[in-house]
Design a protein that fits this description.
With about 400 residues, this protein is an alpha+beta fold. Bound molecules: dihydroflavine-adenine dinucleotide. Keywords: FAD, Flavoprotein.
Length: about 400
């Protein structure tokens, strides 16, 4: 007769490996299955190869979810400090880039090695295609490497972003098969594309505040060949109501644009109108001047205040015309996923399907940029691992 594992974990990514390690330490027999040839491929490319593995300031407000309280219990049960302690126990050097944002000092591979060492004693099979999961007395997992049985199954195959790294909808499909509802999914933390691309601005970067209603992020923005990206844009993209819903972008963040332009007029009365844009990167300033000030031949002293006010409004409340987003090919995360209402917030187990767990990005919990998504993977993985 086939061995019956205490848990089969689908996905050897951040959340799956954390759940596997935790369950194994609790004495469970664990099998991890993954269709990729190696563990943690997204971890390896994360944080520009340095993996922003947590954020010390993590709280529920840093996540988007249909239930904004759902993540509290798991985050309290396994905190950023807990993960940092683990990182230090493994002798991994780290550095704090922005406040609270912790990265590996050397390589993201250090985090994958940590997880694999922590998960010692678990069986792991890579390059394994999962064909079906059914439930009788126990779960039966059919793969191209044979059938496996388990008392518990953990859905940990992540979200849909970056298909070329092996992302798939397996967890979402299995959730639906077992009657769990799924919140509609869209790309999150994703670059935006313009209706009319401005390739002449590609590479121009500047600090901005990008807002959607009451929520806004002050950080860098960079023009791409097709639109805009950079941390402020990725953050606000997660708050779009549809791909055409453009954020409002303030290119002089923290300053009153009208006052700033008025001060330039006063200081340089004999200068030409494009000098009003002296605080913006040169290429961008030229582009804006060509499109908004080219009819003017006067000096700043003779420029009507009305024109200054309208230029200030354009700079401080620019609403780009969008054609959409770069989609899952370039998104850092998937928004939406397995509905938190069908899961226990303490254990991540499906309320109506005993033994079925869902963790990590497959669940409708999406973090901001800055280490929050990995912290969710660790915390939800530990919550499930402890319950197995
Ligand atoms: P994850 O994607 O890590 O793992 C899923 C696993 O399931 C993979 O090993 C995959 O091969 C496997 N799988 C998928 N489909 C399968 C199938 N059908 N059969 C078998 N196996 C299957 N976050 C952060 O906090 N800090 C950061 O620095 C970054 N940086 C970053 C950069 C880039 C470019 C991206 C795309 C993403 C990030 N992220 C991030 C987000 C972070 O990588 C992500 O939220 C976590 O990896 C999610 O962990 P999971 O374990 O849920 O999925």
């Amino acid at each position: 007769m086939n061995k019956i594992f205490d848990a089969v974990i689908l996905g050897a990514g951040a959340a799956g490996l954390m759940a596997a390690a935790t369950a194994r330490k609790g004495g469970a027999s664990v099998l991890v299955l993954d269709h990729s040839a190696e563990a943690g491929r997204k971890i390896l490319i994360s944080g520009g190869g340095r993996c922003n593995f947590t954020n010390l300031a993590t709280k529920a407000d840093n996540f988007l979810s249909a239930n904004r309280h759902f993540m509290r219990s798991a985050l309290a049960g396994y905190t950023p400090r807990d993960f940092l302690t683990l990182v230090e126990r493994h002798g991994i050097s780290w550095e704090e880039k922005a406040e609270g944002q912790l990265f590996c000092a050397n390589s993201a591979r250090d985090i994958v090695s940590l997880l694999l060492r922590e998960a010692e004693g678990c069986e792991m099979r890579f390059s394994t295609a999962i064909r079906s999961v059914t439930k009788g007395d126990v779960f039966h997992i059919q793969t191209d490497m044979g059938e496996f049985s388990a008392r518990n199954v953990v859905l940990a195959t992540g979200g849909l972003s970056i298909p070329k790294l092996g992302a798939s909808d397996l967890s979402l499909r299995l959730a639906r098969q077992f009657g769990l509802s799924v919140v509609p999914t869209v790309p999150g933390l994703v670059p935006l594309t313009f209706e009319t691309p401005l390739p002449e601005l590609a590479g121009v970067s500047l600090p901005v505040r990008a807002s959607m209603g009451k929520i806004g992020f002050t950080d860098g923005m960079v023009f791409t060949h097709r639109g805009i990206s950079g941390p402020a844009i990725l953050q606000i993209s997660s708050y779009q109501n549809g791909p055409l819903d453009a954020p409002v972008i303030d290119m002089l963040p923290g300053r009153d644009a009208r006052e700033a332009l008025g001060a330039i007029k006063k200081a340089r009365p004999r200068a030409e109108p494009p000098s009003l844009l002296q605080d913006l990167p040169q290429r961008l300033a030229r582009h804006i001047a060509d499109n908004t000030l080219s009819d003017l031949t006067c000096t700043l002293a003779n420029l009507p205040d009305k024109r200054i006010a309208s230029l200030a409004a354009q700079i401080s409340a620019w609403k780009p015309k969008l054609s959409g987003t770069e989609g899952y090919a370039k998104a850092e995360v998937m928004k939406g996923g397995i509905d938190t209402r069908v899961l226990s917030s303490k254990t991540m187990e499906a309320r109506d399907v005993p033994g079925l767990f869902a963790i990590g990005e497959a669940v409708d919990v999406t973090g901001w940029l800055g280490g929050y998504n990995f912290q969710w993977a660790w915390s939800s993985g530990v919550a499930a691992g402890r319950a197995i």
